[in-house]
Write a structure and sequence with these properties.
With 313 residues, the chain is mainly α. It has two domains: 151 residues, Arp2/3 complex 21 kDa subunit ARPC3; 104 residues, no CATH class. It contains 14 helices and no strands. It is globular.
């Protein structure tokens, strides 16, 4: 037992030192920081996968404390994201959870941490990054409009169009945040896990996308939203309008993924090469309406059984 504790302490100190070096390089060394940022969470993830949660939390807390001395207050939110992701990835590996569980847990923790950091920025520092970004974007479009107007090429209703686009962007910001976080975490996990596998850890894998099946209740939610959209007129800018816009967008994204899942299932059943699935996936996004329709049919009707039966014949 003493030897195990000594090993934990020794490796913990090494992990904290390695994390500190990577953090310092990420902050102060141009070009090289593009690489170190990708692997900043790796030491924490490895340690969390090898040792108990209590020991890992101890290392996480010390790593966060040292980040302040490396980069000041600016380093804390940056380090927090990577430390939390590393801890979640390692902890789920240690508990032998699925890769989907790892994705969901990491995304939820990251969303919560971003929201907390956002609230702190607004309340304590009186800085709203979303508002500032919208103001900056509006200024850039105004400058572009002035430039186009000087050459008599300004499109009709330019100002109104830009105003509507920025309004909808602000309205669906919660959904964009969630989707952005999930995409980031998905890529981030797929960068960390191959390295952790090389380091001797037994890491989980995603099941093939063709096996993905969303709950059928998604169809009912989508139907309710469509009915509300058709028969209830909501005033723009109200809370109800914002909720409906975000729910609609999220449901369409989920049904798009279900449609892509069916496309992969169909291509697999036909025995077509993998490059066909890759091309079809890229085409699924510009043809989103058709992809959503496929997702609806895949959930509402047992068309996968029909495809299987037809292939047997």
């Amino acid at each position: 037992m003493p030897n195990e504790q000594t090993k934990q302490l020794t490796l913990g100190a090494m992990i904290i030192a390695l994390f500190s070096i990577l953090l310092a390089v990420s902050f102060y060394v141009p070009v090289l920081n593009l690489i170190t940022i990708l692997f900043l969470a790796l030491p924490i993830a490895w340690y969390s996968a090898k040792f108990s949660r209590a020991a890992s939390i101890y290392v996480v807390v010390l790593s966060m404390g040292i980040s302040y001395f490396i980069g000041g207050l600016m380093a804390i939110p940056f380090a927090l994201i990577h430390v939390l992701l590393g801890f979640i990835i390692g902890d789920t590996i240690r508990l032998k959870k699925s890769k989907l569980f790892m994705l969901m847990a990491s995304a939820i923790v990251l969303i919560v941490s971003i929201v907390i950091e956002y609230v702190i920025l607004v309340l304590l520092f009186k800085f709203n990054p979303v508002k500032e970004m919208l103001v900056y974007t509006k200024d850039q479009y105004d400058q572009l409009g002035t430039f186009l107007e000087s050459y008599n090429t300004l499109p009709k209703n330019y100002d109104q169009t830009i105003s509507d686009v920025l309004f909808m962007f602000e309205t669906v910001m919660p959904t964009l945040l969630i989707l952005g976080v999930f995409c980031f975490v998905f890529v981030f996990i797929n960068i960390q896990l191959p390295v952790l596998r090389k380091l001797g850890l037994d890491v989980p894998k995603f099941p093939a996308i063709r096996h993905m099946r969303l709950p059928k209740s998604i169809l009912w939610y989508y139907m309710i939203v469509m009915v509300v959209t058709l028969f209830v007129e909501l005033t723009q800018g109200t809370f109800a309008f914002m909720v409906l816009a975000n729910v609609t967008m999220m449901l369409r994204v989920l049904l798009t993924l279900q449609g892509i899942s069916f496309i992969h299932f169909y291509i697999h059943e036909k025995g077509w090469p993998k490059w066909v699935a890759i091309v079809a996936t890229f085409l699924a996004f510009p043809l989103q309406s058709l992809t959503v329709l496929l997702g609806i049919f895949d959930l509402g009707f047992n068309i996968r059984s029909f495809v299987k039966d037809k292939n047997k014949k």
